[in-house]
Amino acid sequence: MRKLGVFICHCGVNIAGTVDVKSVAEEMGRVEDVAHSTDYIYMCSEPGQQIIREAIREKGLEGVVVACCSPSMHENTFRKAVKSQGMNPYLCEIANIREQCSWVHQKDREEATRKAAEIILATLEKVRKNESLEPIAMAIDRRVLVIGGGIAGMTAALDLAEGGYGVVLIEREPGLGGHMAQLSRTFPDLDPALPGLVAKASAVERHPKINLLCYSELEDVKGYVGNFDLTVRKKATLVDWEKCNGCGDCIRDCPVEYASPFERGLGMRKAIDLFYPDSVPSKPVIDREHCQYFLDKGCRRCEEICPKKAINFAQKDERIELKAGAIVVATGYELYPMERLGEYGYGQIPDVIDGLAFERMLSPNGPTRGKILRPSDGKVPKEMVFIQCVASRDPDRYMPYCSRVCCMYTAKHASFYKEQVPDGQPYIFYMDIRSDCKGYEEFLQKTIEERGLLYLRGRVSRVFQDDGKVRVLGVDTLTGRMVEVAADMVVLATAIVPSPGVKDLAAKLRATVDRHGFLTEAHIKLYPVESSTKGIYLAGCGQSPKDISDTVSQASATASKIQALLSTDKLLQDPLIAFVDEGICSGCGICVEICPYEAREMDRRRGISVVHEALCQGCGACIAACPNFACELRNSSASQTLRMVDTFVA
Amino acid sequence: MADFEPRIVAFLCHWCTYTGADLAGTTRQQYPPNIRIIHLMCSGAVDSIYVLKALIDGADGVLIGGCHPGDCHYQTGNYKARRRVAILKGILNQMGFTEDRIWLRWISASEGKLFADTVTKMVEELKKMGPNPMKQLWDA
Questions:
Q1: CB of B139 less than 8 A from some CB of A
Q2: Within this chain, do residues A339 and A487 fall inside the same structural domain, yes or no?
Q3: For FRET with A600, which of A38, A316, B39, B111 sits at 20 to 30 Å CA-CA?
């Protein structure tokens, strides 16, 4: 019989406020093989861990249950603590009495106490039968896949490449930069966005450690942390980028023009064109949907003019097989689809545009060369309305969260407007002003004072077209009066939502997304750049709305986490995998069929099934399928589980 | 029967529902304390014997929680669970249990509220159903 120890954490009042920890500790102390049972205010603290270490030394404990928060929080902490005393770390188990007991039964102290005791008793059953195990060393691939070539993906890729790691950067669009490439100048320093961004993009393009695959998407992922097998689909650009010298003759001569998504519909692009004028790489792509050749074979002008014979209408999508040890998901954001916002007249009123469209208007390389002009008639707007929190912070109808950047960019927009149109009047409808980062409040106050911006606290109920004007009906809640503005133009600060397709991508990566589609981190405070799946890391707005500074910080944090992960040749993996009791196995082969990883195989000579340790992921499918209990999962055997059931039902 | 408190044994997969149950805690969703959770790596690892043993020993309900279809961390474990539960329900009916005592639910790591709501609902339903008939056999 093993001598066991039980250590019950108060977690301040988080557990002790609901569970009577003293009485549970006493009860556990009466269990026959429990040689030591105690409680402490914070078991994870240094003095708390010291209590465990001393008890192991003094009482000669051979197994430990720590009753505390979820194993996802401190299993590692406590396993390290017992290991320091020579105990095998797999003889330490966590009884989850916080997330799954005290926090969810806060009004029922008696029942919560009983439940906590039962959870600990069941965990003791598990520990009684646990084996001492050693981690399995796996060879790892030290390359990294970065998904997304916006500022987040580029930063992570460059950091990793500078650290000496090989990077494959894939970007869905034909060029790098993401949404930041659409911005004019950025708050709070009002630096132009493009020069720094393009410099970074060029560094990515040139870096010998970075394999840049633009116009490419991730098609398939197999494998696990340290050893991902990837299939990337490189979409046909219909232009041989190796041959293309970027002269631009094809773009100049292309007869087809259509509204450019990059210019948010305010400008035109050709059927063969760059992603945007300063795009990196500076190579064009033919858009099949608009190209005349694909409509009726009626035009081959680009092919005729190209001096390098780079146009190839027959080019096919290419599938590239890659390997990587870790993956960064930096898929960025999109703005809330405005056609769903009927009350703001979007889609019907050309002079109601969103923040990114206004950024294009303000950009020197944009459709109006930086001039603020009404889309409908090209006149300078004399009265402008800016509306904040459009589809943000509106849990009943739209998104409940704050989109983080709108307060600041609206102030910036209004300020630029006053700079260009000194006799114009901007009105800003807002709910609250949030300016909580370095230099933001100062920027905001300075802008309001210098530019004389008129802020109206309240929401807008309706926007409609009337006699060449855009009428905005709203309320100023500070004066309690209805406000009606006959504006020339309206800019909506719409909610940030995840990029389209993130959900499918997350499913491929086995990462999770929240109900809005943002990728979820392993822990919001302690593991903010790790996803819940090992080896998958997050950066940028795909995780939550954030500004450029935070995005860059997060991307660098992600890169440094990955460098730590890949700094060794071998990755230690939990040995909690399947094994076969060779005396029982009848060689029926059900496990071989059911295993999703080809980790089970028949040993024809011995007539039994065997486990490939390197391939087994420990899912337990073979265990449940085995008709005679010949396969088991290490430290999660059927007899352990059945004993736990016994504890809970008896 | 007013004071009947059902006992639920839950087998939750590591990647989705166990983490979802953790999120229910982190976000302080409140649900009745009638449930006891056993952590497994995958819903596909829930052996029929676990469910049968729990019910024969007197559990009033068994909850199996896995990832949504298409989201299984191990590709197809949740489909295996779905097939196994379908077969189990047939056996249970023959054994004299109502099959509604087994709930198989897809609850993701981000659905803490759904987990709490599911437990609350299951307790309500089991209260209507009354105690596991096996319990009377054991008590007799």
A1: no
A2: yes
A3: B39
By Cβ distance, the residue of A72, A513, A617 closest to B110 is A513
Exposure of A523 by Cβ count < 10 A (0-12 exposed, 13-18 middle, 19+ buried)?
Answer: middle
| Residue numbers in A near B78 (CB within 8 A) | none
Same domain, A359 and A465: yes
Domain CATH code at residue A27: 3.40.50
Provide the domain count of chain A.
5
Q: What are phi and psi of A313, to 5 degrees?
A: -65, -20
Instruction: Select from A113, A623, A645, A647 the residue whose CB has the most chain B CBs within 10 Å, as the one to mutate to test that interface.
Output: A645
> Which of A115, A621, A649 comes nearest B45 by C-beta?
A621
The type of residue at B37 is I
User: Which candidate from A104, A111, A619 shows the least CB-CB separation from B24?
Assistant: A104
**Whole-number percent of chain A with pLDDT over 90:** 90
Q: Are residues A506 and A628 in the same domain?
A: no
Q: Could you write out the DSSP letters of every residue in A195-261?
A: HHHHHHHHHHHH-TTEEEEESEEEEEEEEETTEEEEEEEE---SB-TTT-----HHHHH---EEE-T
Asked, for residue A313, whether it belongs to a domain, the answer is no
Task: Of A308-317, A343-352, A611-620, B82-91, give the lowest mean pLDDT range.
Answer: A343-352
Q: Check A104 against B29: CB less than 8 A apart.
A: yes
B36 touches chain A (CB under 8 A): yes
In whole numbers, what is the pLDDT of chain A averaged over residues?
A: 95
What's the rounded Cα separation, in Å, for the pair A212 and A320? 12
What's the one-letter identity of residue B76? T
CA atoms within 13 A on the CB side of A454: 10
Interface of B with A in 58-77 (CB under 8 A): 58-59, 70-71, 73-77
Class of domain B8-139: alpha beta
In tens, the pLDDT along A266-293 reads: 999 999 999 998 999 999 999 999 999 9
Which residue of A122, A533, A621 is in closest CB contact with B42?
Answer: A621
Q: What 3-state class would DSSP assign to A5?
A: strand
Q: Are β-strands A191-192 and A185-186 bridged in parallel, bridged antiparallel, or unpaired?
A: antiparallel
Regarding whether A592 and A543 lie in a shared domain, the answer is no
- Determine phi and psi for A298, rounding to 5 degrees: -85, -5
pLDDT value of position A347 = 72
Within-domain flag for A427: yes
In chain B, where are the structural domains located? 8-139
The beta strand positions in A83-174, using DSSP E, are: 92-96, 136-139, 144-147, 167-171
Q: Do residues A341 and A456 share a domain?
A: yes
Give the Å distances, CA to CA, from A604 to A270, A589, A625: 64, 11, 20
Interchain CB contact of A198 with B (< 8 Å): no
Instruction: Show the domain range for A593.
Output: 577-633
pLDDT tens-digit readout, B62-119: 999 999 998 888 889 999 999 999 999 999 888 888 889 999 999 999 999 999 999 9
Task: Sort residue A144 into left (φ over 0), alpha (ψ -120 to 50) or beta.
Answer: beta
